């Protein structure tokens, strides 16, 4: 414990259930069976259900407004459509944001993963349920409105492909920049995150909708395309939003407050790190081999969950519903660069 009291800095990975890129000392000792067990935990399945339901509701509500606008001689109007999309995003963030993070968007999921705020191992499953949810929502609308060919609710560029690509990049950059600011920065007023993100979606639709359809979401474009077989310009709505979200997240990370030197700050940004102190109040709960230990912070509260990390054979870091140990858990390296990894559960 004396080593911990020396003010070791910790690195925030902001992940759930399972770690993403782990230190080699830990990764080499974990078996595939353990990673599989962690990957299919009840908590993770709940997150997938939340993403599926949320994406379905998002696409159904937003695209229903478009269908009604087509059928009723533009009675909904562009501002009305923008309001529907923004409101449903806001409602869903407050409904399931605490369960899955309320991504509903492969571009957002990938952007979080590239910023080390989300584990890569969970990305394929998230994207799969998002696309399935969007496809089923689009199929539901097609059945309800008798599947008329002129009621395509997907996204097709009205101008040139280059114009659409640039606008989708900018709109998604704007959206992801706001998400990173209000939802991942501890200094932000997070109780207003849903309002800010929903308003950003509405604003993006107002300035880019007439030219691109304002997708900002590969799943939003893929679902209707799969149902109707209209794939014109689909690549724009996959590449543009994905790159825009990645650059939006990275740009905000450059602006995070730090008191480090330029060299330290650059290294910290590249790993999306948030420095915190590991103090003498913390407790080592198990030694994981090769100089690593699991450490529990007694100074910060954490959400409870299932087994989220197995650092070595026979060494499991766990915080569950029955445990009184409801605090943040770190993986602490005693030697080498003297870092610990803060695992959010």
UniProtKB/TrEMBL annotation:
Q: What is the topology of this protein in the membrane according to its UniProt annotation?
A: Multi-pass membrane protein
Predominant place of localization: membrane
Q: Which superkingdom?
A: Eukaryota
User: What one GO molecular function would you report for this record?
Assistant: channel activity
Q: Does the keyword Cell inner membrane apply?
A: no
* Segments traversing the membrane: 48-70, 76-96, 125-145, 165-183, 195-214, 234-252
Q: Does the keyword Membrane apply?
A: yes
Q: Which Pfam families match?
A: MIP
Which keywords label this protein? Membrane, Transmembrane, Transmembrane helix, Transport
Record's SUPFAM superfamilies?
Aquaporin-like (SSF81338)
Could you say which protein family the record assigns here?
Belongs to the MIP/aquaporin (TC 1.A.8) family.
Supply the NCBIfam families for this chain.
MIP
Which PANTHER family has this protein been placed in?
AQUAPORIN NIP2-1, AQUAPORIN NIP3-1
Q: What is this protein called?
A: Nodulin26-like intrinsic protein 31
Origin organism of this chain?
Answer: Solanum lycopersicum (Tomato)
**Encoded by which gene?**
NIP3;1
